[in-house]
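User: Please run a holo structure prediction.
Assistant: Happy to. Please share the sequence and the ligand.
User: Here you go; the ligand is acetoacetyl-coenzyme A.
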Amino acid sequence: MPGLAPGIFISASVFNNASNLRLSFVKRPGQFRLIKKTTKEDYDMARVALVTGGTRGIGAAISKSLKAAGYKVAASYAGNDAAAEKFKAETGIPVYKWDVSSFDACAAGVKQVEADIGPVDVLINNAGITKDGAFHKMTLDQWNAVINTNLGSLFNMTRQVIEGMRARKFGRVINISSINGQKGQFGQVNYSAAKAGDIGFTKALALENAKGGITVNAICPGYINTEMVQAVPKEVLEKSILPLIPVNRLGEPEEIARAVVFLAADEAGGITGSTMTVNGGQYMV
Ligand code: CAA
């Protein structure tokens, strides 16, 4: 398998009570760098970010990077309690369990997050699943699960926060779509349809809210080094996927997180309705 990204990135953020400062760090092999100092008062005023599927894989990297950038972060997850507890212990980021394919569960979950840390300014619709298989063998359950989790969730989650964002005249909605929503993928009719739907959702919602200080953007990751991609049969990954990636490696979750932090910033207010590809050059649009 071609090499991985040159270096891993770990973000961390801690309060130093003596100096009343929150110190955010980034760590790479052979390097440990302070990237930001924030006072406690700044933190109390910080924007609130909610990351769905935020305790593992790409979502965990997004949660950590947003925290390191000074956001108050909440991470939702669907089922893996052990991973969520480990993530919480390591990062100090509060975790919430609900199913993003359920509108009522999203309503209750967002209400709880808002009661705990404040109104959501930045929503990252990241949660997603795969149920791959050739379409002529695909079951209705495989179809419904992927459509409801990967596309229905954008309605279920965004609907909970959009009115508040409109009232406060600020919001960032960032939808994690996929290269396979742009180009299609053998074995992923359900997933490609949902992820393409995420891009249409992004554009229409961006138009409706462009005047109100709310931006809506999509990020399309390529094949990223996560459990989801590791679940692709090894032979398929090595023969049919990796050779198509010009940078000659899988992407790293932190590369998606970096794009999220960029789009979430107050200074990114002019970027809306866009689709940012982060795919190692595999598909250029
Ligand atoms: N391209 C062309 N032909 C393929 C193929 C491919 N990628 N994969 C399988 N085939 C062929 C097989 O060789 C087989 O051909 P024969 O009948 O001539 O032998 C035929 O298609 C049927 O194959 P299977 O019976 O194995 O099909 P299946 O229903 O079991 O599905 C599969 C197999 C699930 C598609 C498997 O090949 C696979 O997992 N492919 C990878 C799919 C993928 O890329 N998923 C991405 C997951 S990561 C992700 O989604 C994150 C993201 O956003 C990028």
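Residues 140-168 form the longest helix (29 residues).
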